[in-house]
Amino acid sequence: MLLVPVLLVISFISFSLVYLSPGEPARLILQRELQGEPSQVQIDQFNHEHGLDKPMLVQYTSWLKKAAVVDFGNSLSTKENVSVIFNQKFYASAKLFIVAQLIALAIALPLGTLVALKPNSRLDNISRAVALAGISLPSFWLGMFLVYIFAVKLHWLPASGYEKPTNIILPALTMGITGAMELMRLTRTSVMEVLWRNFVRTAKAKGLKDGVILTRHVLRNALIPVITALGLRVSHMVGGAVIVEMLFAWPGLGRFLVQAANARDVPVIQGFVFMSALIFVGINLVLDLLYVFLDPRITYTTKGG
Amino acid sequence: MLKTIWLGIAFIVLLVFLASVAPLLTPADPFQVDMKERLQGISWQHPMGTDQLGRDLLSRVIYATRTSITASFSVVLACLAIGTVVGAVAGYYGGIIDELLMRLVDVVMAFPSFILPIAITGILGPSLANIILALILTSWVGYARMVRSSVLVLKNLPYVEAARAMGFSTWEIMKDHILPNAVHPVIVYTTFKAGHTILAICGLSFIGLGAQPPTPEWGSMLNEASSFMGSVPHLFIFPGLMIMITVLGFNLFGDGLRDFMDPRLRKEFEL
């Protein structure tokens, strides 16, 4: 129930962000379109056309009414419908995000489990050092290195773009490698915690094979924190990926938002900020439900703080 | 574990030292343009080579330490101040005040990372000051949550009740009895936060929203270097290396500090 007022405030913030603008948005947009200083008449006309001359609260309520049916108007620069653009960009971002997280999991799960089985071994210490260095590594720097090696020197892969299927490899690797570091340590700790539980000993006593114990009993329980971390990362799909998207000219949400913010494309900023917050809130909700599926002991019948 | 703390401290002290005495150390003026000397390789005169405008890269990299350290510390200190006040007030008074403040925190947290900073700096205009402002506006909430949860526990402990019974004012109870006991997790969080903030500022500068040329800043230096990647790779190697070393220093320090202060904290801040 508390979700509704929070969502309302989110929508108000998303809407009113553009009022922070030091200059009138109309002047800035017209300057670009006309390649010169617009007259006051042109500014007034623009404001009237886009309803920018009405009081802010009136504008907000009419914006909110449309936002409720996912209509944020048209982009001022490309004239396309904001929701349509959002869908396209969301698809591109999601594709990159999913491939990157699969790479991260493919690195993190086996390595994290392996070092958890041999804590404080040399391999464990190396992985700890690598993880610490890895989370300190700026993703865009790693990306530049990958471009330098695979695109500039070896000419194996394209440095940027979207059209070819090979375009996704370098940005996904960049995000995947930086993302794997944190997950690897997380997998290690949660596997180690589960390994000492009684049910693992029971499974061993029953004579189950090690592989079965690991996959059916240990990993299933150890995965909960890993999934939480992945879920929190969905927020990075829109925000954190922006730098990688800019570096590789990947047409995702973050890159488009930066372009819109630079161009003061009011409807796009409002729509993108609101939609991404909405999706983030929704994903957190889905995650909470997913825990119930993974760990049937968790219930949401009693209300907690 | 003490080893990591000392290693981290050594890194940080070295960087703060570099930042504070930058003018004494740099071999050349970081703003001096010399087109005849542009894109030079590594030499005795220019240990890291020169950039696309012929400026000495080593001098710029050292000056950039200043930019990053001051920007990051301003963000972290402001967040620490705002977050502690909000968290302490919400936790101590509870009730409607707590409810309102925490809903505000929920709202700020509902926006995915970087979305608000990008929108805010895009609208206010790209600059280092606006990036700092935008990051403060969006990252105080972590402190607020953390301080609030500590205060919630501490305020009901017998020794605080005793202090209240002895007639100490709310301010004194807060300052002398509650906050000193809530400080450990905050210190660890601050160390990591300083590193993260440097990464964020460099990242946003890299995409053109933060520090503007000719300000020496690692992120924007990397951005400028991207056009010359094929011919002069050292232009992007050195600034990036500095970012990594700096952030690594803070992470090492935080990691060691966490283990040193309280082994139980490990779970909250696990890598």
- Predict the CATH topology of chain B: MetI-like fold
Q: Which chains have the largest interface?
A: A-B, 55 and 48 residues
- Rounded to an integer in angstroms, the radius of gyration calculated over CA atoms of chain B is 22 Å
Under the CATH scheme, the architecture of chain B is: Orthogonal Bundle
Quote the beta fraction of chain B.
under 5%
- Continuous helix count of chain A: 13
Rg over alpha carbons of chain A = 24 Å
Indicate the percent of residues in helices of chain B.
Answer: 55-70%
Q: Tally of extended strands of chain A?
A: 0
Determine the oligomeric state from the structure: heterodimer
* Major pleated sheet of chain B: none
Structural class of chain A: mainly alpha
- CA distance, first residue to last residue of chain A: 13 Å
Q: What is the CATH superfamily of chain B?
A: MetI-like
Helix count, DSSP H or I runs of 4 or more residues of chain B: 12
Provide the helix percentage of chain A.
over 70%
How do the strands and helices of this protein lay out in sequence?
The complex is a heterodimer of chains A (305) and B (271).
Chain A: H1 3-16, H2 25-34, H3 40-49, H4 56-68, H5 82-117, H6 122-135, H7 139-153, H8 169-195, H9 198-205, H10 210-238, H11 242-247, H12 253-263, H13 266-294
Helix pairs in contact in A: 1-4, 1-13, 5-8, 5-10, 6-8, 7-8, 8-10, 9-10, 10-13, 12-13
Chain B: H1 2-20, H2 22-25, H3 57-93, H4 95-110, H5 115-124, H6 128-139, H7 141-154, H8 158-165, H9 170-178, H10 183-206, H11 218-225, H12 234-261
